[in-house]
Design brief:
The complex is a heterodimer of chains A (306) and B (161). Chain A has 11 helices and 5 strands; from the N terminus they run ααβααααααααββββα. Chain A has 306 residues and is mostly helical. In chain B, the strands form 2 sheets. In chain B, strands 1, 2, 4, 7 and 9 form a 5-stranded antiparallel β-sheet that branches. Chain B has a 4-stranded antiparallel β-sheet with strand order 3-8-5-6, with no helix packed on it. By secondary structure, chain B is α+β, with helices and mostly antiparallel strands. Chain B has one domain: Jelly Rolls. Classes of the chains: A mainly alpha (306), B alpha+beta (161).
Chain lengths: 306, 161
Amino acid sequence: MQCKFYKFCLLILIIPAILVAGCKSDKGKRSPGLLDDSEAEEIVDRIETIKQVYHLSPSPAEMLSVIDVADLSFDVGLLNPPGNMDNYLDTKSQTISLGIYITDLAYAALFGRHEETLDYLDVVRTMAEQIRVTGAIDDELMEKARNNVEYLDSLFNISNEAFINMLFFCERNNRPNTVIMLSAGAFIESLFLAVNLAGDNGHADYILQHLADQKYALDNLMMFAESMKVLDPNVAAVIEDLKPIKEIYDDITVVAGTTTVESEKAAENQPKKLVIGGGSKPTLSKKEFENLKETTVELRNKLVNN
Amino acid sequence: MKYIRQIQILFVLFLIAPLSVMAQDCVDYHKLGDCMMDRQKGYKIYSQSKSVGMSPVDTVEFNVIFYGQKDYIFSFCTHAKLYPVHFVLIDPDSGDVLYDNAKDRYIESLGIGFDVTKSLTIKVDVVARKASEEEIEQYVGCLGLLIQYKNYSQKKVNLKM
């Protein structure tokens, strides 16, 4: 009886100790991918002040939705066929392909293509499970998609929700390397779709500017990836894959300008409002566009054909 | 004897429950915390909304990309002891401070319209007015940044190159 009592006391002391230690170590465990280079120079200051830096990127649906597709036609030939899913066997190609398929899902949703949206949602769910990103697309989300096939906005939200769920899952399970590979696949596919949409149509100039603006997204993705490359050789390989595109973006002209901030009257029940305009602006010449298109198509086909 | 065992189990569960809550992550805090009180009809949640764990001695920087021709609403939320939240918007190209909410009584929500696509650094720390000296050193809570957006009702500038 006495022995049991001691065991009980020991249990009471040990369990909270483990949990509290877990909470503290979580702070120390902050992924190095979240920290920038300047931190290395502030090691002494770090004891008192911890600085976390997060380089964030838009979702594929948000990247694509900038393009007004009203006058454009859906081209299923641009997408990675669902049947290719079984060709990806290693973690890197599976994760990158998942990023590609999520973007194809967003593209189908953006054009309101019900059948393709459901097909790609299914592919994304299967591939996510293969790389053990579970629960991102559950039965409820699938059902929601089936029931909302007539509503464009709902399809867009569902494809976005699937992507955000995956990010949350990876963050909870300390898998920043998966986020990088996923984002790289999504970035390449959205770039691939955009360069192909910038054909001979009334939107060409607008899409060119959108493509130039992707410099910011690529810069953020590369900064995040660079900070993680020592932890995973697959991330280092992704950086190598993206390098030719990064070099094109590094060379494009960025027109300098002053950023302006103006106050604007806020609408009723809305917070104070500012309007930010001006500032530096990346621009893409026709020649640079052709170069970007060629490099993007080459890389995307290499990734898709594994 | 049976009752003692049941009391033991209940006691252990009683101890574990609050600590497990403490150990919970902050990943989707912006979808659960006070931030959601700012949800606006007609606005979508931006995927770059983010939540992190931080203490009053931490500084967090979010490098976020905002597409042009859209209205955004930034909402910050945290635990009661960590308020007010201090945030500064910085132009990463020039390093210029575009906005500092310390000059605006630490407002927690701000609407911003972006005429053109822009990358922005959002630097955040918490003032933790209600925290004691000891809590400032030790307290770790969640900080959420909820970003909502919607398209401009009509294009305001010519985007053609």
